[in-house]
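Here is one chain, start to finish.
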Amino acid sequence: MLKLNALIAGSTGYIGIQLVKLLIKHPNINIKYLCGNTSKGKSISYFDKSLKNKKLPKIIKFNNNLLNDVDLIFTALPNGEAQKISNKMLKNNILFDLSADFRLKSYKEYLRWYKIKHNSKKNIKKSIYALPEIVKNKLKKFKIISCPGCYPTSILLPLIPILKKELVESNNIIIDSKSGYSGAGRGVHKKYINKNLYESLSAYGVGFHRHNSEIKQELNNYSKKNVKFTFTPHLSPMFRGILSTIYLNIKNGTSIKKISLELKNFYKNDKFIKILPENSLISTNDVINTNYCYVSVCKTMDKNKIIILSAIDNLIKGGAGQAVQNLNYYFGYNLKKGLV
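Its structure:
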């Protein structure tokens, strides 16, 4: 079987490790290089003991010459780094980026939200915001596959279909999301040293979290309206998982049953989206260690309002799994390869 050679840059972070675990199961992929700036010469099993007896290369420092030997580049790096690599890409390279470097279609918006000047403006038009179930067959037209953030994934999947059909109001959406602390990366323990991560719930980025930018970009894009929402993220005392609770006003003539049915019809051919029966109570435990997104539409005391619950694993469906799913769409592989 012909295998594609892959390079993983940023292989030792939580997302990078998860990506390694998925790709070693993929029959069409050979992990050629593992790269890390401060971990050169180490085995990847140093960072995750479950990888100890796997046939994987030692970690090396990235250099541009490595691009000659690979078909696929996966970047799980700090913001700004994937831009540099994209400027050195060869014709046969395809970049799957898990940072925010190509999520925004305006370099001015990128500067505004990330406080970094975009150093690969020419490549923005070569990239696609790749929420797999939404873009699917459009992927092959692009050389840079930009994987969405974890919070936006849990939010956009249930909202895009019903906003497109104008089943809910677009001017007063409230989004409350809770994530496991792995979403903040390995530095989370130092960054939140006084927060007692393991026993407390913490709000952060209130009103101005960076993911506001891509949520707004995509909701406006698919609804063709200026969608107004308030998004508040929280760090929860668990390692992985996201539960988003979305409060919506429904339009006259619409019902909870109609909204649930629209979601079921929209995703009827998508293996990794499960629209549960109305009023189902879901938890992160339902999706941990999977590439699934569980969605439930719930009634409230006010007949004009609904609550949508959405749960994903932030490291898989909200990160590495989404990248592998995009890979499978791109090359026409069975969607479950590397993911089940």
